Request: fold
Amino acid sequence: MSTQGKTIWIDLDNTPHVPFFKPIIRELTLRGCNIRVTARDAYQVCDLARHMGIPHETIGRHLGKRRLLKVFGVIDRAIKLVPFALREKPDLALSHGSRSLVLAAKLLRIPSVTITDYEYTKPLPLFMSSSWKMVPELIPPESRNFPLNRCLTYSGIKEDVYVSTFEPDPVILGQLGVSDDAILATVRPPATEAHYHNPKGERLFEAVMELLTGESNVRVVLLPRNERQAAWIRTTWPHWFKGNRTTIPEHAVDGLNLLWHSDLVVGGGGTMNREAAALGVPVYSIFCGPIGAVDMHLNETGRLVLLRDHEDVRGKIRIEKRPKETHLLRETSFALRQIVCHVEDILTGRKL
Reply:
């Protein structure tokens, strides 16, 4: 059975999903699939999707960090996704952890696949979960929170899916007003609205920023999660922005390109840190939630440094220029091929 003419519905629920799904969309389209995309109006999802040329329909938005609002937001958005699904009649629904897509697909009896790479995300009850789950094989079977006969795996990390085709563009430095001789540090604050947020991460974030902005030759590009967080940072620590030592981009930027041109990266979440690790950029994590198997692997292999306290901030961060060698792969990654093959097998009934 062929995938020709099959319709796949992809939902972009968070910013990292945009670069992740771009090569998947390309590969599935080459195999004759019709791709229909929805996007949540949250963080920089829609801006980045437009920037990357992914046609999409914007449905639903982020309602805030309170637990009740989060639950209501998932259900409300699932209901709003139903008319889209009824109109497009997808054969399969695919996301990287979009709960609203899973609920809408479940309601309409559409087979669905949830890709995830963090085992401590609170799972939906099994009677409300997706038909299939896909995870990196680095996550041990006992931590996958899903029936193993419906759980598929891929090699490496999810960032391998799209980093392999990345090509640097130095124009970004001029756009951000960063000179060639400056040490560029890209910093992502903790996700204060996430269910796994630990206030310790904010204290580490402050310590990191005090260290970096105290160096005259360092320029910090700060990537807040949303406008509320940006306003809070500007109001609380205005001295970080004096003399243009810290810049918050006005519009969505190509994250991989920014990371590649950075001399070091500090992140309070997962995806950006792993992207930097995949690119070979020195990266330091101030994430203080439960550490997943993927990040533990990167830390143990020296590709990521976990910062646990202020002593680590002062003692482990190396503030220096790094050599930028363009030795990146220029071929489709093995992880991408595995994910696409899994999707094809589900569509054609080979995975039942």
The mean pLDDT is 91. The chain has two domains: 7-164+331-347, 171-316. The radius of gyration is 20 Å.
